[in-house]
From TrEMBL:
Phylogenetic classification of the source organism: Archaea, Methanobacteriati, Methanobacteriota, Thermococci, Thermococcales
Molecular function GO labels: transmembrane transporter activity
InterPro entries from the UniProt entry: MFS, MFS_trans_sf
Transmembrane segments: 5-25, 45-66, 73-92, 98-119, 131-151, 163-183, 204-225, 237-260, 272-295, 307-327, 339-363, 369-387
Name of the protein in its database record: MFS transporter
Domain of life (superkingdom): Archaea
């Protein structure tokens, strides 16, 4: 296999190992509540802290924290997830656990850092490579859930938490060590740029940054809010959530490949951007149809139709591979690493906003579904607006 694609597979393993932390603690909810003597509402604070950490990670991307040596940056990001994973089973207070979960959210910085690497290794193949890497988020979620189940079946009470967390931390560092042996290092630039090339002062950054906002809103709240308001059994809801995870992983790869096939026809900056917009628009359009099917299935209490609808709705993740290849395709080479974090920060503001808004607004399925349908439409409208804009690389030239 070509070395570039081995790099992609190793990156995917790193992402999967890191994102195994995403839902794991929730699977021990009963044990955690008893151990710390907290309420179910307080239990939810840890996931809120994690999601806010995802947002803050991109805020820190504008600093020198994740710049300089690429390999050092990846090791640092993994440590933000692995060290708390080692400490959580031994924390004496619930507040300490919540604080550690916040830092674990920094794992999402891998996505922006790997985007810089993929921008160097590929051109037309960028969406496909990125789609494979992003699928690791959802393979990691599935791995974390199943590791928690295995530990619960083989160990009792808090012992199960200790085993699952310590094993997953060891896996993160083992995968990082394997990755380190095969990956070439490079420098992510630290230098400041003139105001004329400040990504935050470019209208394109703001408009296109928000094109991924609706997708993340759906991805991070559909399973947590709407699906927990349905009348299906707990086992059926668990299957729907797992189906959503698997479908998002597969759609990430499928739509990434479609982005590659469209990109290869025209590898100019504008040609690559047209492919990006096309893939994201199609993903949102099919997402709209999938959500509508899910709504009808839940209303009719039709579990099989709900499974079909969820499998289709997973295409919302098809927006991801295209979005995360935008910076190398549309910004000058010297500033696209900074642009990756800027676009990530804007889009991931959904992580900070969506859970709180959904908590206030969603007390039944209908409200949630109307919000999700609106988000799909908003995504398409923002994409159409961005397609009419001049790209930063067209305004500044590739050497800015």
């Amino acid at each position: 296999m070509e070395k570039r694609w081995i790099t992609v597979l190793l990156n995917t393993l790193v992402v999967a190992a890191g994102f195994g932390t995403m839902h794991m603690l929730e699977k021990f909810a009963g044990i955690v509540i008893d151990h710390y003597g907290i309420t179910e509402a307080a239990m939810g604070y840890q996931q809120t802290a994690y999601v806010v950490g995802l947002f803050v990670a991109f805020l820190l991307g504008g600093t020198s924290l994740f710049k300089g040596s690429f390999k050092r940056s990846v090791a640092l990001i993994i440590s933000f997830a692995a060290i708390p994973q080692l400490l959580i089973p031994f924390m004496p207070s619930w507040g300490g656990v919540v604080a550690l979960r916040f830092f674990q959210g920094f794992i999402v910085a891998l996505i922006a850092v790997f985007s810089n690497q993929i921008g160097r290794l590929f051109v037309a193949e960028r969406p496909f490579a990125k789609g494979i890497i992003l699928s690791g988020i959802f393979w990691g979620g599935i791995y974390g859930i199943n590791l928690a189940k295995w530990a619960s079946h083989n160990y009792s009470d808090w012992g199960a938490v200790k085993v699952a967390f310590l094993v997953s931390a060891a896996v993160m560092y083992a995968v990082l060590a394997l990755w380190w042996l095969f990956i070439e290092d490079f420098e992510i630039p630290k230098e400041k740029h003139s105001s004329g090339s400040n990504v935050w002062k470019m209208p394109f950054t703001w408009v296109f940054g928000f094109t991924f906002f609706p997708a993340l809103w759906i991805i991070f709240t559909l399973g947590s809010f709407t699906l927990h308001n349905v009348k299906f059994s707990d086992a059926q809801v668990a299957n729907l959530v797992m189906t959503l995870e698997v479908s998002m992983a597969l759609w990430s790869i499928i739509m990434g490949y479609l982005g590659y096939r469209l990109s290869v026809k025209n590898t100019s900056n504008r040609g690559l951007f047209k492919a990006i917009v096309s893939v994201m628009t199609l993903s949102y359009a099919v997402t709209f149809a999938g959500i509508f099917i899910v709504w009808k299935a839940i209303s009719a209490n039709d579990y099989r139709l709900a499974l079909i609808g969820i499998a289709i709705t997973g295409i919302v993740q098809g927006t991801g591979p295209a979005f995360w290849t935008t910076a190398p395709a549309t910004y000058p080479k010297k500033i696209y690493p900074e642009a990756s974090f800027a676009l990530g920060l804007i889009s991931n503001s959904a992580n900070a906003v969506a859970p709180n808004v959904m908590f206030v607004l969603v007390h039944g399925v209908t409200t949630g579904m109307l919000i999700y349908l609106s988000m799909a439409i908003l995504g398409i409208l923002l994409l159409l607006a961005s397609a009419r804009m001049k790209l930063p690389v067209e305004e500044l030239g590739d050497a800015a």
